[in-house]
Write a structure and sequence with these properties.
It is built from 8 helices and no strands. The chain is mainly alpha-helical and about 170 residues long. The chain is globular, with a radius of gyration of 17 Å.
Length: about 170
């Protein structure tokens, strides 16, 4: 796999692990699940015979992570609510507490979106992928990815009215 990627496993992991973990965390809403998905993503990428011909390594890794998440979702056949104690606020710092509460609202709202809408939104807003990369990663057309993005932003804004969604 090193020849196909052009880099060694350690460099691959160091370069992309934080992105994959963040994506898996936002997608699943669970820190332990995100760790498992991240680890398995890199094992599968490293063991694969070849990578997708077009697209970036990051998009390829995020595709693996999403597929692992979907597999786990199908396996358990249920969605668990995000624990209330996900965010721990530092005592005595009102601003930080308010920020943590706002992030909790966003996390809860994200879990109310459909998986595909959450995925498209996170790939664009959090990972900075182009609509073309999002389309390849999710199997949607570019137009469908744009429509999903628009609807996901609108739904998220209605669920958490105090946040401002930047259009890109």
């Amino acid at each position: 796999m090193k020849d196909a990627l052009g880099i060694g496993f350690q460099e691959l992991y160091e370069r992309y692990a934080a992105d994959v973990h963040r994506f898996a965390y936002w997608l699943s809403g669970d820190a332990d699940t995100a760790k498992d998905i991240t680890s398995e993503t890199f094992v599968r990428a490293w063991m694969a015979d070849s990578i997708v011909e077009s697209g970036s390594i990051k998009a390829y890794l995020l595709t693996i992570a999403r597929n692992l998440y979907l597999h786990e979702l199908r396996r358990t056949r249920r969605r668990s609510a995000m624990p209330e104690d996900v965010a721990e606020a530092a005592p005595g710092i009102e601003r930080r507490v308010a920020g943590q509460l706002a992030m909790d609202d966003v996390r809860k709202a994200l879990q109310q979106l459909s998986e595909i809408d959450r995925t498209v939104l996170l790939l664009r807003a959090d990972e900075g992928l182009s609509y073309d990369e999002i389309a390849r990663t999710t199997g949607l057309s570019i137009a469908a990815a744009k429509v999903r993005m628009f609807r996901a932003r609108a739904r998220l804004s209605s669920l958490v009215p105090h946040i401002r969604m930047e259009q890109s």
